[in-house]
Amino acid sequence: MKILVATQKPFAAVAVSGIREILEGAGHSVALLEKYAEQSDLVAAVADAEALIVRSDKVTAEVIAAAPSLKIVVRAGAGYDNVDLAAATAAGVVVMNTPGQNSNAVAELAIGLMIFMARTQFTPATGTELEGKRIGIQAFGNVGRLVGAKAKALGMEVLALDPFLTPEQIESGGARPVFSVEELYASSDYVSVHIPALPATIKSIGYDLITAMPKGAVLVNTARKEVIDEDGLMRALEDRPDLRYVTDVMPDNYTALQEKFGLRVFATPKKMGAQTSEANVNAGLAAARQINDFFATGNTRFQVNK
Fold first, then answer.
1. Which of the four pLDDT bands, split at 50, 70 and 90, describes residue 25?
2. Predicted model pTM
3. Which of the residues 183, 219, 224, 228 has an alpha carbon 20 to 30 A from that of 254?
4. Under CATH, which architecture does the 103-267 domain have?
């Protein structure tokens, strides 16, 4: 089978070497498309590919239509909104992600962003401590649990909301369950967001939820920018001068937010939650192993377009 590894932002060299070893060791051939300039380069490269590994690359309907032999796409990472699932499903292409491989990197960044804001972006101004504060975790999956564990180690009280988990499962992860998003926001000095961008969640975090947070609260978003109602965020920060927002996914209105609110808002220059050497390698190798298993046994455990 021909496997194309297509990455505008390439894997680390050690990850590429490991991917080759895993796939070629199973008898597959590997082609690399790295740092490509145009989407048309990806469309051309998939013409004879039977499997595709990507990072944040856009696997559009056009890409899928250009790959008549394609059987599987693996997104090396947790999020998969860069893949057109409907087009893949219609073409009979299996789409997988690699859950858990980037989780620790994202969790560490979330905690780092909290400290950064607590210490007023490391300016000389007097800051605050995380110990004794409450953190509410919105979605208690792989990343959320790690954020909770790290926050607990810092002396924070951990609350969590996840509609897909029982209270007992949340408690087993070291958090106190809450039963509504309104309760989570109203009870938390910090809210760490880990929900996906789905029709039900897009712009779901807006003025009402944000202004329900306690005095001096901080909203931390390392998920997707689409889940934030940016107009609502702007109004909330206007009406509540004590609130702050920090994110790993730059808002479309970030320039206006910065000009208006200064040190009360911060966004990383690019999404960097998974940008560690360890996560880079882990996700790439996991993608290669999943492709091997899919072709050898038909395993679709991590399929996301069922």
1. very high
2. 0.85
3. 183
4. 3-Layer(aba) Sandwich (3.40)
Domain spans in the chain, listed from the N-terminal domain onward: 2-101+275-297, 103-267
Which CATH number fits the domain 2-101+275-297, given the four candidates 3.30.830.10, 2.40.240.10, 3.40.50.720, 1.20.58.2050? Answer: 3.40.50.720
Banded model confidence at residue 306, pLDDT cuts 50, 70, 90: confident
Answer yes or no: is pLDDT of 275 > 90: no
Q: What is the spatial order of strands in the sheet that 2-7 belongs to?
A: 29-34, 2-7, 51-54, 72-75, 94-97
CA dihedral 61, 64, 66, 71 (to 10 degrees): -170
Residue 179, number of CB atoms within 10 A of its CB: 10
Q: Tell me the DSSP string of 205-260.
A: B-HHHHHTSPTT-EEEE-S-GGGB-HHHHHHHHHH-TT-EEEESS--TTHHHHHHH
Q: Which DSSP string corresponds to 87-134?
A: HHHHTT-EEEE-TTSSHHHHHHHHHHHHHHHHTGGGSSS----STT-E
* Torsion-angle region of 253 (φ positive above 0: left; ψ -120 to 50: alpha; else: beta): alpha
Which residues neighbour 231 within 8 Å (Cβ) at sequence distance 6 or greater? 206, 253
Which among 19, 119, 55, 96 is positioned nearest to 270, based on CA atoms?
Answer: 55
pLDDT of res. 304: 96
